């Protein structure tokens, strides 16, 4: 009887273990890879993905590069997640071209890969893209800057992202188009030029580099009166340089992101206007599509626009915008 009892206990334990294994194997595992861990935009994206995964009964794995542009770190994170059982990878790519071979390998192995925020080059390297229309974001701030300049001759500085990055190119070229200058279309990764653009410097979206870039541009042309910045950290750096030069009150600075600090900077007059994007929406859509794929095999495809809106403290005629109060209600980061 004791032997029989022991056998029954072993059988029961084995059955429970098998049941747990089946439960674990049925839980969708989704990986989220961002450019960095600390940028408020990606922090909010991760929070949104975690909440969406919990609501849909999925398990989320998260990873990031060490800094913006760290392709090797993103490739390693992808390989580790796939080894851990991820069937879906959501990624904000740091290097639009260099990441493509790793994505192609994952897709050949049956992994669904969705780009968030930043497209790959080519865009078709992933199954789907959920992102801001960055060209539209640039167009909005270009329109605002032109209206705010009120007919004065423009002397423009552009504080850009990094060479060949689709997001940086789309925002830059959209800004030129919105300002009424000739510009490449949204599919180009080449930055447009114009005689009104007197200085262009890559900042990698970094505040310190943005400050140095602005200092250099002012040395090159002290008459700069419009500054396009690829994101709000670079805008914050530009503002510091303008304050040091005594130019902060007569230069129009426009940007993209819509983070809480950036919106506060709009309210304080450090930035004239910013185009607000919505990382929470990107993450939610990505997780939902990933869970549906694991459960049904249905793949998302193409591009989904996750929205953009202009935030300005002082509205200008002909350009629709949100006030700072509304921008703060919708922003990401520390309120």
TrEMBL record:
Keyword Acetylation: no
Source taxon at top rank: Bacteria
Subcellular location: Cell envelope
Keywords, sorted A to Z: Signal
InterPro entries registered for this protein in UniProt: Peripla_BP_I, SBP_2_dom
Signal recorded as keyword: yes
Residues spanning the signal sequence: 1-17
GO molecular function list: carbohydrate binding
PROSITE patterns: PROKAR_LIPOPROTEIN
Ranges for domain Periplasmic binding protein: 30-298
SUPFAM superfamilies xref list: Periplasmic binding protein-like I (SSF53822)
The family this protein is said to belong to: Belongs to the bacterial solute-binding protein 2 family.
Designated name of the protein: Sugar ABC transporter
Source species: Roseisolibacter agri
């Amino acid at each position: 009887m004791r032997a029989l009892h022991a056998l029954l206990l072993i059988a029961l334990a084995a059955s429970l273990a098998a049941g747990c294994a089946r439960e674990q194997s049925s839980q969708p595992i989704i990986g989220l890879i961002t450019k960095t861990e600390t940028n408020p935009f990606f922090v909010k994206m991760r929070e949104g993905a975690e909440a969406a995964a919990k609501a849909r009964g999925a398990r989320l794995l998260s990873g990031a590069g060490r800094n913006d542009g760290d392709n090797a770190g993103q490739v390693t994170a992808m390989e580790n997640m796939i080894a851990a059982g991820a069937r879906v990878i959501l990624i904000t790519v740091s290097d639009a071209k260099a990441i493509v071979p790793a994505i192609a390998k994952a897709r050949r192995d049956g992994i669904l890969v969705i780009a968030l925020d930043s497209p790959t080059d080519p865009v078709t390297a992933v199954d789907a893209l959920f992102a801001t229309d960055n060209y539209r974001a640039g167009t909005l701030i270009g329109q605002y800057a032109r209206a705010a300049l009120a007919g004065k001759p423009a002397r423009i500085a552009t504080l850009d992202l990094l060479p060949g990055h689709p997001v940086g190119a789309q925002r830059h070229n959209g800004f030129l188009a919105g300002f009424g200058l000739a510009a490449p279309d949204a599919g180009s990764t080449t930055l447009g030029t114009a005689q009104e653009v007197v200085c262009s410097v890559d900042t990698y979206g970094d505040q310190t580099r943005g400050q140095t870039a602005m200092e250099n541009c002012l040395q090159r042309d002290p008459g700069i009166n419009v500054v396009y910045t690829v994101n709000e950290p670079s805008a914050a750096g530009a503002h510091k340089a303008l304050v040091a030069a005594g130019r902060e009150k007569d230069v129009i600075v426009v940007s993209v992101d819509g983070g809480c600090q950036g919106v506060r900077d709009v309210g304080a007059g450090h930035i004239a206007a910013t185009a607000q994007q919505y990382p929470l929406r990107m993450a939610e859509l990505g997780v939902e599509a990933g869970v549906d794929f694991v459960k049904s095999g249905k793949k998302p495809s193409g591009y989904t626009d996750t929205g953009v809106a202009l935030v300005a403290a002082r509205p200008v005629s002909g350009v629709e915008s949100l006030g700072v109060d509304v921008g703060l209600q919708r922003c990401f980061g520390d309120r």
